[in-house]
Amino acid sequence: MKLLLTLFIWINFTAVPDLASIRKMYTEAPKSEAGAKDFVEKLSGISNNDDKIMVAYKAASILLDSKYEKKLGEKISRFKEGAKLLEATIASEPNNIEIRMIRLSIQENVPGITGYKKNIKEDKKYLTAHYAEQSGPLKEYLKDFVLQSKSFSEKEKQFVK
């Protein structure tokens, strides 16, 4: 019985989180330090060899978590780690609209002093050009992002309506 319980606990903690729950967590994580920490924890088992969308969310979790580091050196180090991982993920799948949306959402919300805002126009253009090709939950998720995004004007948001 103990073996079964141990196996059940191990499977639950090592299982790859499902994409729907990660998307939901991603929209909530920036709202609080606890949310950011939970998001990091949920994605801690994701390796660079896993599904690239999950790797991109892991990178985003590191970037979000860097905001709550107490020491400036640690804050900068965590931020660079997350940005490097996200850029590597985009380089490996440059035509993945969800990964582009993740980068856009990060870049539109980081302070200008980070210098990590150079792809906003490029990613906006990509989302606008490829949104209609998407279907199902991803299309709805992208629509929700665009409608709340600071990067799109009210006129630009019309393509998702």
List the topology elements.
Elements: H1 2-14, H2 19-28, H3 33-42, H4 52-66, H5 72-92, H6 97-107, H7 120-130, H8 136-148
What does this 3D model show about the protein?
The protein is mainly α and 161 residues long. The protein is built from 8 helices and no strands. α2 packs antiparallel against α3, α4 packs antiparallel against α5 and α6 packs antiparallel against α7.
Provide a compact summary of the structure.
With 161 residues, the chain is mostly helical. It has helices at 2-14, 19-28, 33-42, 52-66, 72-92, 97-107, 120-130, 136-148.
The 3D shape can be described as: globular
The overall pLDDT, averaged over residues, is: 91
Helices and strands, in N-to-C order?
Answer: HHHHHHHH
Largest sheet: none
Given as residue ranges, the uncertain stretches (5+ residues, pLDDT < 50) are none
Class of secondary structure makeup: mainly alpha
The strand count comes to 0
Report the radius of gyration as a whole number of Å: 17 Å
Percent in strands? under 5%
* Head-to-tail CA distance between termini: 54 Å
Percent helix range: 55-70%
Total helical elements: 8
